[in-house]
């Protein structure tokens, strides 16, 4: 149990709600309600009431089969809102610009927002075509290299909660995963290689490679990706250039 060294809160329910959200954000995966109660020193009945209230608003999800609770899509929206308020973009912009100079290809930085990614920085390389990844654009995370890199860094239970069935899979070019099983195979490969790829699933003829940016607890807060046209470039070579930039941004935000 975590000792309470702070003054008694004036709004206990609000204080307990925020403590639960903060606790869940530090975990590597969903946890049981009794674990939350024991670790935070909150009565179990209060924990259950608060979790159900947060679930109604999308901040947590209940995985019935495991009897565990994890963060919901509304929590990802908060993370995206933080990023859109500039701190992450300010820290990432010089790294993105430097990576574009080194690779000669266009580079972007994105964050998760529900089942989408939102692009917060883009650096187009000279003499490279315009992309759909302008700042503020949202794209389905399962189709993008940035989204796949972040999804691969999430606990598998969290991915199942975000993608429960084939009905949630959007399509742009007729390519890409159409169901949870296909997405799991893509994410397994990303975990093995340390980077995610996409080939014509956002825009035909264009390919991307992305690497997740993890916070101090290992959670993906963003991803850096390089996009290029054609088949001449080796994705592994570009991933080797992207990975240090993602690691440096992780260091700066931590």
Automatic annotation (TrEMBL):
Taxonomy, superkingdom: Bacteria
DNA-binding found in the keyword field: yes
Pfam families for the chain: HTH_IclR (PF09339), IclR_C (PF01614)
Gene Ontology molecular functions: DNA binding; DNA-binding transcription factor activity
Stored InterPro entries: GAF-like_dom_sf (IPR029016), HTH_MetabolicPath_Reg (IPR050707), Tscrpt_reg_IclR_C (IPR014757), Tscrpt_reg_IclR_N (IPR005471), WH-like_DNA-bd_sf (IPR036388), WH_DNA-bd_sf (IPR036390)
SUPFAM superfamilies given in the database record: GAF domain-like, Winged helix' DNA-binding domain
One biological process term in Gene Ontology: negative regulation of DNA-templated transcription
Record-annotated HTH iclR-type domain positions: 11-73
Keywords (A to Z) from UniProt: DNA-binding, Transcription, Transcription regulation
Residue ranges of domain IclR-ED in the record: 74-254
PANTHER family per record: HELIX-TURN-HELIX TRANSCRIPTIONAL REGULATOR, ICLR FAMILY, HTH-TYPE TRANSCRIPTIONAL REPRESSOR ALLR
Name recorded for this polypeptide: IclR family transcriptional regulator
């Amino acid at each position: 149990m975590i000792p309470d060294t702070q003054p008694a809160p004036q709004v206990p329910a609000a204080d307990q709600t925020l403590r639960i959200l903060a606790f869940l954000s530090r975990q590597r995966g969903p946890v049981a309600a009794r674990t939350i109660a024991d670790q935070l020193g909150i009565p179990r009945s209060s924990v259950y009431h608060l979790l159900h209230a947060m679930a109604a608003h999308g901040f947590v999800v209940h995985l019935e089969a495991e009897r565990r609770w994890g963060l919901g899509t509304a929590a990802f929206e908060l993370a995206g809102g933080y990023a859109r308020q500039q701190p992450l973009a300010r820290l990432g912009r010089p790294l993105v610009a430097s990576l574009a100079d080194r690779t000669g290809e266009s580079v972007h930085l994105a964050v998760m927002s529900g089942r989408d990614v939102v692009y917060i920085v883009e650096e187009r390389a000279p003499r490279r075509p315009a992309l759909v990844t302008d700042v503020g654009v949202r794209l389905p995370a399962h189709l993008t290299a940035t989204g796949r890199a972040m999804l691969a860094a999430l606990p598998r239970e969290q991915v199942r909660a975000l993608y429960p069935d084939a009905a949630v899979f959007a399509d742009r070019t007729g390519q890409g995963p159409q169901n949870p099983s296909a997405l799991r195979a893509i994410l397994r490969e990303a975990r093995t290689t340390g980077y995610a790829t996409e080939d014509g699933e956002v825009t035909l003829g264009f390919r991307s490679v992305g690497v997740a940016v993890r916070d101090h607890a290992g959670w993906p807060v963003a991803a850096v990706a390089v996009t290029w046209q054609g088949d001449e470039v080796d994705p592994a070579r570009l991933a080797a250039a992207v990975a240090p930039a993602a690691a440096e941004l992780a260091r700066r935000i931590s």
